[in-house]
Amino acid sequence: MKARRVEGLDRDVPLRPNAARIVATRLAELLALSGAALDPEAARAQHDLRIAAKRLRYVLEITESCFGAEAETARKAAKQLQGVLGEIHDCDVMLPGAGEIESLQTLLRTRRELLFQRFRELWLAESDRGTWSALEHALQA
Amino acid sequence: MARAREVPGFDCEEPFAAAAARVVRVRAGEVFEHSEGVLDIDEIDHLHDMRVATRRLRAALEVFGDCFPRKRFRKALKKVKALADALGERRDRDVEIEFLSEFAEAAPEAERPAVAARIKSLREEQRQANEDLAPYLEEKRLGKLRRRLEKLVEEVER
Lengths: 141, 158
Hints:
The complex is a heterodimer.
Chain A: H1 15-37, H2 43-63, H3 69-94, H4 102-129, H5 131-140
Chain B: H1 16-33, H2 44-63, H3 70-106, H4 112-133, H5 139-157
Helix pairs in contact in B: 1-2, 1-5, 2-3, 3-4, 3-5
């Protein structure tokens, strides 16, 4: 999934406003992809959301000190999302290779279901906690 | 993999391009620091560490892409992506082998030969991935990438 181009960056302007534009774009990508990813069968959407979480995590890893505690909280949440979605992706990648090994297929499917539940709970908890809106607010401060 | 290293002198109020130079220099350094022992399939954490460092460097390049001369930037990013992909191919096999090796112990007796066969096949893919990765880790090639990234940073600092 290609990252959305960030408009209006200027190399001669301080880091903070440039970083705010980048983080805002990456956050918007994450939020736009989340709806589809909450469908348990939507492996592709979950994969795309993982990439979006990774991009947000890494830009915050570089720039979070410009935006305060809200950015750190969001970075940690993005890392957790990336982790659980990564484990879901591992199941999706391993399933075709399980071939005729029924016990392995069962394990991977069950594991995927549990991981999906964990992802869903995590996403809803972070949304309820206001992690993403707090980040948006911090970017505008 | 440890947390990303602090970037000395990092300042949110300094120009975007100056921050780009600082961050990319530190992230590039981390990649080369983790290039030892990567081909050792008995110590898979070495590869994981270099992969994470490469991912962080790639992220930094993408964040600060607009600060760099376009052509030189694209070439550098392409090289870093190619290294990341080669590391990723090996890592995917490492992860699956590790998972299946644990699973094999708990698998039903009747299915253990099939699990062993799958692991054997993955070992072969791992060996191939290592063979494909090896050229990227040659001293000469890593040195060239290091100089390429250094030039990129220097151009921004001018």
